[in-house]
Records
---
Amino acid sequence: MLADRVGAHAAVAEITEAAMRGELDFAESLHRRVATLAGLPAEVLEEVGSRSSDARRTHHPAHVAALGYHCGIVSGGFRQVIDPLAHELQMDFVAANELEIVDGKLTGRVIGSIIDRPGKAKALRTSPQQAGVRGTDGGCR
């Protein structure tokens, strides 16, 4: 949806196809796709986030909390799109890629650690612990 806003749908689709064929790893694909977003106004992120999730229909924070569970989001998507939803759904932790924004515009770069397959595995091990989620054996649950 972000690529559509800057007229880069075809370029992003081509990069995604190359990654699906194994020609690019996730991190390289992400960097190339995000580069197409340079100059996009940051307020577009909120608009896209408000239209892009089915989680509102499937996650009920009060029910989850009553059962004693903790929930979080680990995604290869973008933190600026996910954070408002995570707050609304009372998530305990979020790990996602962060788009760099300068002077209210996307720079076309990702900052921080890349949340790819290994990044997701690491986040699933560390994010719950950072949010204070502990099991009786010292692990997360």
---
Amino acid sequence: MAEKCDIGLIGLAVMGQNLILNMADHGFTVAAYNRTTSRVDEFIAGPAQGKAIVGCHSLDEFVRNLTKPRIAMLMVKAGAPVKQTVEQLAPLLEPGDIIIDGGNSYFLDTEEQIRNLHEQGILYLGVGISGGEEGARHGPSIMPGGVAAAWPRVKPILQAIAAKVGPNNDIPCCDWVGPGGAGHYVKMVHNGIEYGDMQLICEAYSLLKDGLGLNNDELYDVFAGWNRGELDSYLIEITRDIFSVEDEKTGNALVDMILDKAGQKGTGKWTSQQALDLGVPTTLITEAVFVRSLSALKENRVEASKVLAGPGQQGEIDNFRITTDRAQFIEQVRQALYAAKICSYAQGFFQLQAAAVEYGWELDYGGIANLWRGGCIIRAVFLEHIKDAYEHDPGLENLLLDQYFCDAVNKSQTAWRKVVCTAAELGIPIPAICAALNYYDSYRSERLPHNLLQAQRDYFGSHTYERIDEEGFFHTDWKKLKR
């Protein structure tokens, strides 16, 4: 059955299987291959049964079943497994054939693959995909980048299976991002923002649970209410649901039975590392990465809790619970969460702008916001406002300068500051919310104390400094002039 399939997919883990089923549902015939071929047989006999899906037991068979120019999509683990698969697959392909890496690959690895395959004439795409198992099956957010010549060929397939938004539910959350590793870079920043969003929500939860003493039923109601307003998002929605689930073993709330050690796969860390390389202040995402690392030190924290004192902890918290207007504090936390969330996205898009300059990409920031409006983990109603902001001003320097977001943060500022002060008084850590406020205050400050820092650098290292009254770089012999 040579040249039968519209597209082929390699890697039959959960994401790969669901993407294939999604493609088949949209009228495409798909070749399926997995290195462990028993998984191919299980898939064909199970979820794929009766669908236009062809199981293949070798890469040769896989390639023979693809219509020319061939489209081969990889859903394998990033790093060495992607490289090895490409090395095995590429000799079987011809000029004009297309390889799509749909995993969470590092963007520079994608650019290296593009260069390596260029002489063979094979077109390589690095495509970020977000939405997890459900998104893959019913419509993910898809962020394609790489060799632009491949885009017209894969566009009908990828846009068909993507999530849809808009008044008529007909705008696909998939469109061309840019050349090279741009698609995977945008997915990396998406994941970094996801780290920030999740940490902010956890801090709001801690303030309401540990500070105010809300039980899980009350927390469910709070998050359900928030999800009907400007915080309406997938992550708020699933957080609401989590508070309703009981542990089958104990009958307790399942969330209370989970150990407080967070895992991570590295994409948030990549975002922070790139921010440092570019010299941009992606502080909230970086703080969220560090807090996951700190949470993993569970045994250390248990020992430290026996030695290190807080601010009269339980007595302070008991008094706070008795004297505080609960509804007012809940609203203050909501406003602080929203303001911090705005800062997180502002930092993420600012990093995308810096990357575009560094790597020579022309990114459509409103278009990127549209890609994230449906299907992905950070999908949220307020992404519509981000799309509008960049459509109104494509050269917008920072989201905080857009009128909608400027007004929103100004409206929330008093509550935001009160929440930070309250957390400090009670000894409840909210590092991401604090990082967002510090970023906001630093960004809005006409003058920061770094004139002193430059003086210090010049004193010990002759690094020079600039003056406020004339141009140029200057050095002072501080030791000679000091008293």
---
Amino acid sequence: MKVLVTGGAGFIGSHVVDALRRAGMDVICIDSLDPGIHHGPPDYLRQDVDYCFADLRYWTPDSRFDDVEAVVHLAALGGVSRAAREPANIIDANCRGTGGW
């Protein structure tokens, strides 16, 4: 089974990816690598997983995603202080990003 993990480069997402791979799943991830959290791809990303670095709000799936059978949706912009500073951006990313696909 092929599983798409949104937010797969994040803390929780990366652990979900590890568990899915241990269970023998084929995994593909999409992550925006939000500069508020990441400064490029993290060192802990797996070599046996396909990563697509894109923002769900502006993403168009390519053929790598054609045979996805399940989705684990963990993508979100977070942080209480950031939400206070950037409420429109957080709401846009976390609401429109979810509904865009």
---
Amino acid sequence: MKLAIIGLGRMGANMARRLLRDGHEVVVHNRSREPIDELAAEGAIPAYDHDELVAKLEAPRVVWLMVPAGDPVDQQIAEVAPRLERGDIIVDGGNSRFLDTLARGEKLEAQGIRYVDAGTSGGIWGLELGFNLMVGGPDDAIAVIEPALKSLAPEDGYLHVGPTGAGHYVKMVHNGIEYGIMQAYAEGFEILHKSRFDLDLRAIAHLWNQGSVIRSWLLELAEAAFAEDPHLDQLKGWVNDSGEGRWTVEESIALDVPAPTIYMALASRFYSRDDNAFSHRVLAALRNQFGGHAVVKKEGV
């Protein structure tokens, strides 16, 4: 199929590459020119403004946004929507708050434009391993973009979870769970780090992935992080949060659902900004490993 991707950052560019590998025609646009030129050299169709982007698509046009949540999404919709026609599709593949997605979907529906939200997990590893996609939107729009979903995701790696808004809702809870799992690993490794024994944390992370009940991809990433920096001495334990954990906590409160693990995992990230605990360095390292998220290095490193 033919579609456009706006936003060629860590994930957007690799999504374009994965689609190109599977034979799709991908029109690419970005605020800066360099990523457009780079992907054009790899077979993508460059578009240096929104008029050019829409002109290079065919009805029903599909424009897939991979930009940060909040104002950047609204700005791109404001640029693209007036150039589209009834029946065209906008996909938001970022981490937008589901309430914002519901409002955007309602507004675009009134204009005859179908709005799909595709919560996307996979980080910087998605190019090779595939992206896990939690998709919300009308059935007819999902049918149009399904060839792209099949190419982007690994086997059984995408699901139409419900109407517009449901995809970002499921991704929000997914990320809240991620906070809790990462926090448990971080605390466990801090205990090991401070123990009376001289323990090889990389070897232990590797061991636990061989049939243990706590084996996971995150443990593989922990092993990689400890291989690069055995005691994470190069990192400061400053851990950002990009919104989804907060929104999961807020939703749990609205639904009267106790979620103490996620509450405390979020609170730990706030604590991290005032200290340099080893557990927080583990969290920072894991975020960098799976998502390429920036870390704060110690001075002089």
